Amino acid sequence: DIQMTQSPSSLSASIGDRVTITCRASQGVRGYLAWYQQKPGKVPELLIFEASTLRSGVPSRFSGSGSGTDYTLTISSLQPEDVATYYCQKYNSPPWTFGQGTKVEIK
Amino acid sequence: EVQLLESGGGLVQPGGSLTLSCAASGFTFSDYGMSWVRQSPGKGLEWVSTVNGGGGSKFYAESVQGRFTISRDNSKNTLSLQMNSLGAEDTAIYYCAKTEAHYYFRYWGQGTLVTVSS
User: How many angstroms separate the CA atoms of A87 and A75, rounded?
Assistant: First the structure.
C-alpha cells in the first residue's frame, strides 16, 4: 500500500506568514491528492482536490501544487481562523490513505 | 443542501457488535459513493470503508476487513456499517462522507462516537 507522509507534524507561525505543508507519497498518486482542514473540535472539511483545485468557497490564500509523489499545501498569509490540523489524502486507488496530519498554530 | 446524519454509536464491550447508520439528504443518493472515515481520540483520520453508488462495489481498510460490512439502501437514502468483533482499537468517531467519483470526501457528517470498553 502507498504510504502518505506529511511534514512537518506541527508548526507555529505568525499572522501573515506564508505556510507550506508537504505531503509525500511512497509511490506516485497521479495528482489524485486532496487536502482537508480540521479545526479544533470540528468536522474535517475538504479544501483542495486533484492536487490543486480549490473547493468553491475556500479562501484564495490556500493553494495546492505537486505531482507524482510530492505535493504541497500553501497558505499565502496565515490568518487566525486557519488554526487547524491539515491532512492530505491520496485517492488514486484503494486504500484511500490519509497523511498523519500537520497541526498549524499561531506564534 | 447536503446533509449527513450519523447514528448508532455508543458503548460496546470488547468482542461485541454495533451497527452505524447515516441518513443522507440534499443530493441524489444513488449517484454517489459513500464512505466511513474514523478518528480515534486525539489521532488522525483513517479511511474505513467505501461503497459505490449502486452498492455493488465495496472496499475496506485492512484493519477492518472481515469484521465490518458496509451497505446502503438507496430507496431510503441510508448508509450502514455493521461492525463485529470490536476491539479497543475501534474506539473512534465514525464519520459518514459523501464520496466523489474519484473517491475524495466532499461532505462529512457530524460523526458518531463508538467506544469499545468493558
Answer: 14
Suggest the residue from A30, A58, A91, A100 to mutate for an interface test with chain B (most B CBs closer than 10 A): A91
- Cβ neighbors of A31 (< 8 A, separation 6 or more) are A50, A51, A66, A67
Predicted confidence band of residue B103 (pLDDT cuts 50, 70, 90):
confident
Identify the three-state secondary structure at position A88. strand
pLDDT at A84 over 90: yes
| B102 has a pLDDT exceeding 90 | no
**What cell was used for B78?**
441510508
A5 CB within 8 Å of a chain B CB? no
Per the prediction, chain A carries an average pLDDT of 97
Q: Which candidate from A45, A91, A101 shows the least CB-CB separation from B104? A: A91
Do residue A97 and residue B109 have CB atoms under 8 angstroms apart? no
Element (H, E) at A49: strand A45-49
Residue range B15-41: mean pLDDT, rounded: 97
Q: What percent of chain A is predicted at pLDDT more than 90?
A: 100
- In order, the DSSP letters of B89-108 are GG-EEEEEEEE-TTS-EEEE
How many Cβ pairs within 8 Å bridge chains A and B?
A: 61
